[in-house]
Every structure is written in C-alpha cells, then in structure tokens.
C-alpha cells in the first residue's frame, strides 16, 4: 500500500473504465423508450417527421440548447463558485431544469411516455452530479494526497458512502419522474437558503462571533505565556488507541476522542444517498458532519471526507452507467469549460461586489427557486421563471 | 448561427481526427490518435488549471492562511486541553475550508474540460465502429481514460521537474550575482 495515492485513484478510474466498457450495450434503452413514445406534434409526443431537429440526448424534437447560452450559464455558475461558494451547484441544476428547458421536456412525458421521461430525468440528475460532484471529487483528491486521514473512520465513512450512493441510484434510477425530482431539489434549495439566512441573522452571527472571540482570547493568552509549555513529543499527532465495531478511540495532541463507528457509517449512507439522489456533491455535508458529530479536527476531516467523496462519486457513476443513463458528454465538457472561465473571471470582478449583498441576493434567489420548484414539483403550481 | 457552429465543428473535427491518420495501419493510427489527444487534453487542462490557479492565488492564499491559522489555534487549544476553544477554532477552520473547496471546483473544471470534450467527440466519431481488441463491445473511452490518466501523471511529473530545475537555476544565479553593496 506504499503507493496508495496512485493505486487508489487509478483503481477507481479503472472501475469507471470497465463500467464504460459496457456503456454501448445500454444505448438501446433510450431508443426503446423513444420507440414507445406516442408520435405527434403535442407536448409529450415524438415528432412524426424523421428529420425533426434532435436536441438533448439526440431525441427528435427535444430542446436544442444554443451552445453560447449553455456556455454563458456555466460561466455564471463558475463565477458563483469562485465568489459566493457552493451555491454554484444549485445554479447548475437550475440551468439544466429551467434555463435549457430540459425539465419541462422531461415533465411533458409523465403521462404519455413515462419511461422516456424518467430516462431524461435521470440524465438531468446525472448532468448535475457530474458538473458539481466530479469537480468536488477531483478537488478532494488533493486533500487525500496529504495523507491527513483517520483510516478506520475513512473506511467506515467510505463504506457508508458506497452503500448510500448505490442505494440511491439503484432505487431511483429509471423510477423517478421529473416532478418528484424537481420537488425534492426545491426542498433542498429551500433548506440551503434557510441555512444561509440563519447565518446572516443576529443568532447565527452571534454563534460565529462567540467562536471568534473564544479563539482570539485563547490566541492572546497563548502569546502572553512566556516560552510556553513544551509538548510531549509522543502526544503530538494522531494515535488510534482502540477500534472495535462499537468504539473508535484516538488521541490527537494528547486529547482523547471517541465515537461509535456506526455513526459515520450511517452518516455516510444518508449523506451520500441524499447527494446522489439530488445530483449534488456530498463533500459540503460530510465535512461539517465529521467536525460536529465526531468532533474530528479540520486538519483530518478534509482528508478523511475526501475518500468518501471519491468513493461516492465513483459508485454513482458506475450505478448510473450500469442503469443505462445516457450522458451528454459534449454538453458537460462545454459547461466545464464555462465553469473554468467563470472561475477565472470571478476573483477579478468580485472586488466590485459586496459579500453581504451577494449573500442576500442568493438567499432571495434560493427562496424563489426553492419555493418555485417545491410548488411545481409537489403541487403542480407554477410561478414565473422556474 | 447554425452554419457558424457547423463550420467550427468541422474544423475541430478535422484537427482532432488528423493524428488518427498519421499511420497507414488503422490500429496503430487509432492508438496514436488517442494518445496524442490524451496528451493534448492533459497539457491543455493543466495549463487552464494553472491559469485559474494564478488568478485565484491571492484569494486562495488568504483562505488557506485562514484555515491554517484556525487549525494551528485548534491544535494549541488541544495541547492546552481547552475543548471549548478547540471546537470554536475547528468550526471557523471548517467555514474557511468550504470557501476553499468551492474555489478548487473551478480549478478542477479547468483541468478536465478538454478530456470531456475529447471523450464526447470520440464517442460520436467512433459510434458503431468496431474498435481494436474490443470490437463493438466498448467505446473509445475504455482506451482514452487510461491514456489520459497516464498523460496527466506524466505532465505533472514533467512540471515538477521543470519547477525544480528552475529553482536550482535561480539559486545558482543568486550565487553568481550577489546583491550590490549596501
């Protein structure tokens, strides 16, 4: 295991390559669903004209997205990633569902050709996940290379993530209609917006200020201490003292930590399942989970969660491909380029915007999008723009 | 507008398919073409990621410094057995980490977009074509991905060697050209 930092990712990618090996065998799933769809000019029907323009997934009559629009939207997503943060993932989903019109298109098949509608929904979900999760997984790899991880915890979390991602895709792929997906995605966006709002409230700010004050007070006290106490060299770093099915105990800087390995295992299942189901990266949930539930130091949490993110992403890809979910690679590639450009432009332009106002803007946006998707998905009530 | 995209696509297609025709033998040409595209994707991806990283540098360094400061503080708190301060500092480090990860997503996108576009093109170009060794049971991705990973690794090693060499040259220049009198 000396060269694990290479063997692990290469091994994971080899599994993806094997999965891709079988990809052409599943291409007929989409053709079969198209063949079953009724022919006509109404929504939810496939045009009778064999020369009708082929758009998304090569389906005749599906939305043809202008590459410039797709690119510009991805620049916007990348800009948000580099200025506001994780909200970019939500905007990527909004692009696929609302701006490019894939959502309405998938929804139109609910009664006429449910199989086709579900395949298109899976593809939208997979596109979201590839766009956000793949970037997160690659970013996480850098933390993994630093070897800052608690291996038993990483294994239990990774195992949970594998099961969660597999279960979510296995149970939802080919079975989820667009309206339900839209509703759940809306709920997620609404919760995210509520969290952002809480952070701007006096209560949320007070919690942060208390943490800052405690840290500053400690920093000042430490500076005042002449020379300071020397640490026992044996105590520095991580030492796992016990690992059983019910207890994982370790010391870090001499301070004992203890948790039940079942907790990260179950946490990994739930977080990865939610991330895979919604088509978002799970890293932004895993790290807070590790630091709050197991009280793991951030120094170790980033690396430990990285393994779980990678495992979860690879499991999702394999399960989606094995279920025959079609992916528009050129579309994802073009969007990745847009995100890169947006990420490039972001830091150059962010000085012209106030962080507070940007946060407020995204709270309003998440409330509008979240409520809109929730109403449209679960109550069939549409508000303009979503 | 559609004519413009079609013309652009035909030009790109002609460029991408050229290395596949460098050898008269179809199998050799196929592997040569994929290898050239893998190396090109890796180099272009690395260059784009480096460009994005350069623009991000100031913000990234600020965030990394913030993460490190809170992490160091949490270690000191641990050493002093002060759990409350440890948890507070750890929470602040976690917030800074979230921002840092979002920046890293942009760099990751810059790294892989060429490979995804090549994958898409190769999938379209070789659709229904029996490929060497695997026939029609697999797509070109099966060959492209390992080649791309190897190319990424090679480019990374070359970049590291080049930086080490440049650093060595810079340090030897400093010996030959000491600063002027004070």
UniProtKB/TrEMBL annotation, chain A:
<dbReference type="InterPro" id="IPR002781">
    <property type="entry name" value="TM_pro_TauE-like"/>
</dbReference>
<keyword id="KW-0812">Transmembrane</keyword>
<keyword id="KW-0472">Membrane</keyword>
<feature type="transmembrane region" description="Helical">
    <location>
        <begin position="327"/>
        <end position="349"/>
    </location>
</feature>
<comment type="similarity">
    <text>Belongs to the 4-toluene sulfonate uptake permease (TSUP) (TC 2.A.102) family.</text>
</comment>
<feature type="transmembrane region" description="Helical">
    <location>
        <begin position="265"/>
        <end position="287"/>
    </location>
</feature>
<keyword id="KW-1133">Transmembrane helix</keyword>
<feature type="transmembrane region" description="Helical">
    <location>
        <begin position="299"/>
        <end position="321"/>
    </location>
</feature>
<dbReference type="Pfam" id="PF01925">
    <property type="entry name" value="TauE"/>
</dbReference>
<feature type="transmembrane region" description="Helical">
    <location>
        <begin position="181"/>
        <end position="198"/>
    </location>
</feature>
<dbReference type="InterPro" id="IPR051598">
    <property type="entry name" value="TSUP/Inactive_protease-like"/>
</dbReference>
<keyword id="KW-1003">Cell membrane</keyword>
<protein>
    <recommendedName>
        <fullName>Probable membrane transporter protein</fullName>
    </recommendedName>
</protein>
<feature type="transmembrane region" description="Helical">
    <location>
        <begin position="233"/>
        <end position="253"/>
    </location>
</feature>
<feature type="transmembrane region" description="Helical">
    <location>
        <begin position="361"/>
        <end position="381"/>
    </location>
</feature>
<dbReference type="GO" id="GO:0005886">
    <property type="term" value="C:plasma membrane"/>
</dbReference>
<feature type="transmembrane region" description="Helical">
    <location>
        <begin position="149"/>
        <end position="169"/>
    </location>
</feature>
Automatic annotation (TrEMBL), chain B:
<keyword id="KW-0472">Membrane</keyword>
<feature type="transmembrane region" description="Helical">
    <location>
        <begin position="27"/>
        <end position="53"/>
    </location>
</feature>
<protein>
    <recommendedName>
        <fullName>DUF106 domain-containing protein</fullName>
    </recommendedName>
</protein>
<feature type="transmembrane region" description="Helical">
    <location>
        <begin position="138"/>
        <end position="156"/>
    </location>
</feature>
<keyword id="KW-1133">Transmembrane helix</keyword>
<feature type="transmembrane region" description="Helical">
    <location>
        <begin position="108"/>
        <end position="126"/>
    </location>
</feature>
<keyword id="KW-0812">Transmembrane</keyword>
